[in-house]
Design a protein that fits this description.
Helix 1 (about 5-15) crosses helix 2 and helix 1 runs antiparallel to helix 3 (about 30-70). The chain has helices spanning about 5-15, 15-25, 30-70, 70-80. The chain has about 90 residues and is mainly alpha-helical. The mean pLDDT is about 80.
């Protein structure tokens, strides 16, 4: 919404009829300039938010696998690193 709201405001400014239609309560007066500007804003908003949402989903999925299946130990073995000793303190912790 933080990204989409400025495009909506710009759409109202560009298309004066849309603002008067909003104030009068009639939806018939929304013009093409308003629709084009808000459509561009929607595309830009989606281009920014969908990758962030996908990244968060991936991080949550990997976190759950690490907690349930000891995926961190498998990743260490796959990287040809020695297994950490049980109970050994990790770096930074």
């Amino acid at each position: 919404m933080i990204i989409a709201i400025p495009f909506t405001i710009i759409g109202f400014v560009v298309d004066g009829e849309a603002l008067s239609g909003l104030l009068s309560g009639s939806a018939d007066s929304v013009g093409w300039p308003f629709l084009i500007v808000t459509g561009i804003g929607g595309v830009i908003t989606s281009a920014v938010t969908y990758p962030i949402s996908a990244g968060v989903t991936v991080l949550l999925y990997v976190d759950q696998r690490i907690r349930r299946e000891a995926l961190d130990l498998e990743l260490i073995r796959a990287a040809n690193r020695p297994d950490p000793a049980p109970g050994a303190e990790t770096v930074g912790g």
